[in-house]
Amino acid sequence: MTTTNTYEVIILFDGYSKETENATEANCTCTLINGPKKIIVDTMTAWDGPKLTKSLQDRKIDCDDIDYVICTHGHSDHIGCNYLFPKAIHIVGYCISHEHVYTNHDFNREYIIDESVKVISTPGHTLQDVSVIVQTDKGVIAIVGDLFENECDLKDDSIWKKAGSDSEVLQIQNRNKILQLADWIVPGHGSMFKVNKNV
């Protein structure tokens, strides 16, 4: 598919999740979509503001330059630095807002940002999960939050199930949909990986 809007997907921080003796240590993958629109997907925890701001500044981007903040779902390790972007439209799961104004959108249909970027409903981990689909020069990149924890959960489904799923049935359906749709996947707690279409 040829598009006129060229976007680059930049992983600002790879997410992780590991069990300790008494708790889980985790942070989400934080992604910049850079092009005609500037979009941050999943803003990590509330303690990550300085490093997120610096990462953007290193790329000559100010927080006020961000057009959209998209959080794949509303868990605290994915929404913590939303406050850094007061000029952006915020999409958190199915909720769309700017300042004190909330916009209704029926996520039974896609939320179109432009011809190269859209937000789709992918419930499972939570019932209001969304994924961001980006057409790029390297193929279709799907930024999916905790629909996929990391690449290892392709072979070991206990990884994503242990992370929590409001509907395992929906999560399996939407995982399969993304695997068919995407060339690359940015998971919630790991590095971007290439989809093997031969499996």
TrEMBL record:
GO biological process: RNA 3'-end processing
Reactions performed catalytically: a ribonucleotidyl-ribonucleotide-RNA + H2O = a 3'-end ribonucleotide-RNA + a 5'-end 5'-phospho-ribonucleoside-RNA + H(+)
Main localization of the protein described in the UniProt heading: cytoplasm
Family annotation (InterPro entries): MBLAC1, Metallo-B-lactamas, RibonucZ/Hydroxyglut_hydro
Domain Metallo-beta-lactamase residue range list: 27-189
A Pfam entry, by short name: Lactamase_B
Domain of life: Eukaryota
Cellular location(s): Cytoplasm, Cytosol
GO cellular component terms attached to this protein's record: cytosol
Subunit field text: Homodimer.
Role description: Endoribonuclease that catalyzes the hydrolysis of histone-coding pre-mRNA 3'-end. Involved in histone pre-mRNA processing during the S-phase of the cell cycle, which is required for entering/progressing through S-phase. Cleaves histone pre-mRNA at a major and a minor cleavage site after the 5'-ACCCA-3' and the 5'-ACCCACA-3' sequence, respectively, and located downstream of the stem-loop. May require the presence of the HDE element located at the histone pre-RNA 3'-end to avoid non-specific cleavage.
Record protein name field: Metallo-beta-lactamase domain-containing protein 1
Species of origin: Aquatica leii
